[in-house]
Specification:
Two copies of one chain form a homodimer.
Chain A: H1 4-18, H2 27-34, H3 38-50, E1 54-57, E2 63-66, H4 75-83, H5 110-128, H6 131-145
Antiparallel strand pairs in A: 1-2
Helix pairs in contact in A: 1-3, 1-4, 1-6, 2-3
The structure holds a DNA duplex.
Chain lengths: 146, 146
DNA sequence: TATATAATCTACCGAAATTATAGACTTAAT
DNA sequence: ATTAAGTCTATAATTTCGGTAGATTATATA
């Protein structure tokens, strides 16, 4: 499962992507419209800023806005930022690699082999899931519904 | 990430699958050869027994053994047994479904749509990963290595 | 320059989950 | 009767998660 942090981050990012290039949005507005605890969201948006995805402006008329384009931000990046590795085992991650203590030979481990495949598939799908793509999907689902 | 419980469970199951139909194996032997804390492993094997995957025999000459055939036991089942849902969001699980509070309309949620795809792919790969299949892969990787 | 506004930083907190361990109890073989 | 093995219950240490509080800093504007 992804953490609430990631879920909130994605929701906030989608909101900011929809308002892309329309000036800064208040944390409070996002928190209220998306029903996210405000103080919690503050920390999340700040992290996204430090990651170079968002930018902010202080004082009156301030708020947060997307720095990157909505088609440059994907879910793989967001998940890794808050939850760390996407893979289901530490021995199959690129960035958070850790050897299994129990493992006799990593090279010939069948378990690892399976989880490597799972990771590859998952990362591929999550990389393709940019903010633009998610918004496109929502439009499509809405059209389908009517 | 999967829990240590699942990792230990898989390792123990592979071990038992390799010894399939050769009588009961001691918890202690599995714990030692696979470097798993014995008391922890006891609980895990007991859970696998209650799930109908293993059976046990008490007293001298006792131990655990596979009840199901190695090609009937897959990783999706094992993960669900200990860690619960495989999906990354509660709103895309079959067996552990929970509605997102923040969600305005589940039917048209683009985030959900993406994570549903991820789940489908993951479950498919994990279901195909039976104990037999994992052992087959290990042989293959060993041949490849030489 | 004072004031209001809004993000930022630091610290903390409680609950739950995770990863175990200890020890008494039950069952079965010899 | 004795020994060997799994089973059950309770507990404990540690970590993670989700969230809160409050002081501080930066900025717009009147």
């Amino acid at each position: 499962m992804i953490s609430k942090k990631v879920k909130y981050a994605i929701i906030a990012l989608i909101k900011l992507a929809r308002e892309h290039n329309r000036g800064p949005i208040l944390i409070r507005d996002i928190a209220e419209s998306e029903k996210i605890p405000q103080k919690f969201l503050e920390a999340i948006l700040n992290d996204l800023k430090h990651a170079g995805i968002l930018a902010s402006k202080k004082g009156k008329g301030g708020g947060y806005y997307l720095l990157k384009s909505p088609d440059e931000v994907n879910l793989a990046t967001v998940i890794r930022l808050f939850d760390g590795a996407i893979a289901l085992l530490p021995c199959v991650t690129y960035q958070y690699y850790e050897r299994c203590e129990e493992c006799k030979d990593e090279e010939t481990c069948g378990i690892r082999d399976v989880f490597k495949e799972v990771r590859d598939e998952t990362v591929e799908l999550l990389k393709a899931a940019t903010l633009s793509e998610i918004i496109r999907r929502e439009s499509k689902l809405e059209r389908k519904k009517q």
